């Protein structure tokens, strides 16, 4: 463990012993035992009336160890505050350090150091000023900002660059805590951008970045300045002290790129000034080391955010391809993310990297596969939908996380609907998706598939072929797949019920197949209602076919298995299944013409025309009135009766909304309830 600043000078043996013991601890319990002894010792020492002032600095450092390791050192907070008032430089710096470590901006002791901070901000020793500025940045809250703001603003012209940099950082912190308090000093950040010291300039960049993100318009005129600074950095005009792995001031470059990205959004004039320097930064950053890769990534994001330049985007796509093809998963992830930024502008820039991206789906890294899925989703167009959807389906087969499966199923469904080359391909794709990810498929996807099969293309021959193909595929699924998800079973039952006769099989044979599936499939019990409806439709279709050929009298009959399914549900505990069973049984007893009218073939997508007057109910209404039923009252008449209230409301037999009468004494005497006496009080 490294001792805090201020501990470099010779300390007591106890201090070094405590540091050594902490470093040698094998577990947390040993460390806690040492810290408890240390807390007891320090509490006793600091409570002593004969406290050695010369050792106070060491005691504060030991208190910081206690606090940093999670133990309570609040008994020593006041001593840290007192140390900030000392004239000795080393004691004052340790006092400020300890105060910053112990307190937060809302602590009650903050009020005791405000006056000291005001004085130290005017001190002639720049080290004292720096210590005070560091503490201000950490501890001053919104209420105490006005007390130190003038002194901090004056320090922007201090001869020492360290002080100027810290003053800019403090003003930036003030802006984050209370933007209104420093709104009149925004111009100062612009001035510090021209400071001769790069560290002060970089501090001003951080503050301007926040201001630009909040409102870029007032800062558009700074674009030439930012471009000029970035150009100087890229050309290596800054001191070598700012280099990192031979890359000139990379962190300042990244901050500048973020600023340019915010200023160039939808602004062609501003963006045109950036193209040249962005291209240069991209070329210089492409040096195959990590910090250079970071600059390349930020250049790509900036190029994708500003008004697009085809030449620059082409350059970005070429550079990013190296990331995507890298063996390093971190670089692959960065490359995929950068490529997705470019794809948002124009998918054509990712076409040549399509197979390299697809190969990332086979990587064992889960986060990399998820990022690949995001990019493939953005890259998909009509010319590549088949390849990408096939890869997504294979990915779905191996995915285990439920959220990932839900997202993949949703994207396959959306892409198949949007870019399907043929209807047959769409049906096959959806069937495969249902079979693999049926447990997470939303009902809307199944409804869309059924609607597509029902609506068709408008060409009778092509639609008949498509529907016959779908029926054949679903019958094969029922015969070969012992376990199908519920959503796919619902689709199969609907399609076979509507168009099963197109397969050439008899209605009775199809009913038996559906009933067997309901019995055999694990999810079959949940779709019995749909199975009964499908059997009823097949019975209606079979009756209509028999009527057309003159065979069998044209009666609508269920097969033996379908009849047993219907009979079993006549007394079902499910209200829906029971009601549906009774309705189907009653309907099939009617004449074939009535059944055909109730269950017409291929009419699922036809609009229903309803007469609001409901003339079909006239006979029923007349019969009810003749038997003494009350006539229907329109809503307006009912509201009028309710408003009238009183005798008119009672005469009309309407509900009463006034309070019940209070019970009489005699009624209460005869209605005493005893919980231990059965049927007491009339119960």
Description:
This protein has 683 residues and is mainly α. Helix content is 65%, strand content 1%. The chain has helices at 13-24, 28-47, 56-68, 77-83, 89-102, 114-120, 126-139, 145-154, 161-177, 186-192, 198-214, 223-234, 250-263, 268-285, 290-305, 310-324, 329-345, 354-359, 366-379, 385-398, 402-419, 423-437, 443-455, 460-480, 486-499, 507-520, 528-549, 560-569, 575-588, 592-598, 618-626, 635-644, 646-651, 665-669; strands at 243-244, 247-248. The protein has a two-stranded antiparallel sheet. β1 and β2 (247-248) form a beta hairpin. α21 packs antiparallel against α22 (423-437). Residues 1-8, 549-553 and 675-683 have low confidence and may be disordered. It comes from Mantoniella antarctica. One of its GO terms (cellular component) is AP-4 adaptor complex. This is Clathrin/coatomer adaptor adaptin-like N-terminal domain-containing protein. Keywords: Membrane, Protein transport, Transport.
């Amino acid at each position: 463990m490294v001792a805090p600043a201020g501990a470099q000078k010779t300390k007591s043996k106890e201090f070094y012993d405590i540091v050594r013991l902490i470093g040698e601890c094998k577990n947390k319990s040993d460390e806690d035992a040492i810290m408890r002894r240390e807390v007891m010792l320090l509490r006793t020492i600091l409570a002593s009336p004969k406290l050695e002032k010369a050792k106070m600095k060491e005691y504060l450092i030991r208190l910081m160890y206690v606090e940093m390791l999670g133990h309570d050192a609040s008994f020593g907070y006041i001593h840290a505050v007192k140390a900030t008032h000392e004239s000795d430089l080393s004691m004052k710096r340790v006092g400020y350090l300890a105060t910053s470590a112990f307190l937060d901006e809302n602590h009650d002791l903050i009020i005791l150091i405000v006056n000291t901070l005001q004085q130290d901000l005017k001190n002639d020793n720049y080290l004292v000023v720096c210590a005070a500025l560091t503490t201000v940045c950490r501890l001053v809250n919104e209420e105490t900002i006005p007390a130190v703001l003038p002194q901090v603003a004056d320090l922007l012209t201090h001869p020492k660059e360290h002080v100027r940099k810290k003053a800019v950082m403090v003003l930036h912190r003030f802006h984050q805590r209370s933007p209104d308090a420093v709104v009149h000093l925004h111009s100062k950040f612009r001035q510090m951008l021209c400071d001769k010291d790069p560290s002060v300039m970089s501090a001003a960049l951080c503050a301007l970045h926040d201001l630009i993100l909040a409102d870029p318009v007032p800062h558009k005129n700074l674009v030439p300045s930012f471009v000029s600074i970035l150009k100087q950095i890229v050309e290596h005009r800054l001191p070598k002290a700012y280099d990192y792995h031979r890359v000139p001031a990379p962190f300042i470059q990244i901050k500048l790129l973020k600023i340019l990205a915010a200023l160039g959004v939808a602004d062609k004039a501003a963006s045109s000034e950036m193209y040249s320097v962005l291209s240069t930064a991209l070329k210089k950053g492409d040096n195959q080391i990590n910090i250079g890769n970071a600059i390349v990534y930020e250049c790509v994001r900036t190029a994708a955010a500003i008004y697009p330049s085809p030449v620059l985007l082409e350059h970005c796509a070429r550079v990013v391809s190296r990331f995507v093809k890298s063996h390093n998963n971190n670089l692959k992830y960065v490359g995929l993310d950068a490529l997705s930024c470019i794809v948002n502008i124009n998918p054509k820039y990712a076409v040549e990297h399509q197979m390299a991206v697809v190969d990332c789906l086979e990587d064992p890294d889960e986060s990399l596969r998820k990022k690949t899925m995001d990019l493939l989703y953005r890259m998909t167009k009509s010319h590549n939908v088949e390849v990408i959807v096939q890869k997504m389906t294979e990915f779905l087969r191996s995915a285990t996380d439920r959220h990932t499966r839900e997202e993949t199923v949703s994207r396959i469904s959306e892409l198949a609907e949007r870019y399907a080359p043929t209807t047959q391909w769409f049906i096959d794709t959806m069937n495969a998706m249902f079979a693999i990810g049926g447990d997470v498929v939303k009902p809307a996807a199944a409804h869309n598939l059924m609607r597509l099969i029902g609506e068709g293309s408008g060409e009778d021959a092509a639609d008949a072929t498509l529907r016959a193909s779908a029926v054949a595929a679903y019958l094969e699924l029922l015969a070969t797949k012992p376990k199908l998800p519920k959503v796919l079973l619902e689709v199969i039952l609907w399609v076979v019920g509507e168009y099963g006769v197109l397969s050439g099989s008899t209605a009775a044979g199809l009913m038996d197949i559906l009933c067997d599936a309901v019995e055999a499939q694990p999810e079959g019990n949940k779709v019995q209602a749909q199975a009964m409806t499908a059997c009823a439709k097949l019975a209606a279709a079979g009756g209509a076919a028999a009527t057309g050929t003159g065979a069998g009298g044209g009666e609508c009959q269920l097969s033996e298995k379908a009849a047993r399914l219907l009979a079993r549900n006549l007394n079902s505990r499910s209200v829906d299944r029971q009601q549906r069973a009774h309705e189907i049984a009653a309907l099939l007893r009617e004449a074939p013409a009535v059944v055909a009218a109730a269950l017409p073939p291929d009419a699922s997508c036809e609009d229903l025309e309803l007469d609001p007057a409901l003339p079909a109910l006239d006979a029923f209404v007349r019969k009810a009135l003749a038997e003494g039923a009350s006539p229907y009252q329109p809503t307006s008449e009912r509201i009028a009766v309710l408003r009238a209230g009183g005798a008119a409301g009672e005469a009309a037999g309407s509900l009463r909304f006034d309070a019940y009468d209070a019970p009489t004494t005699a009624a209460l005497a005869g209605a005493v309830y005893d919980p231990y006496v059965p049927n007491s009080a009339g119960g």
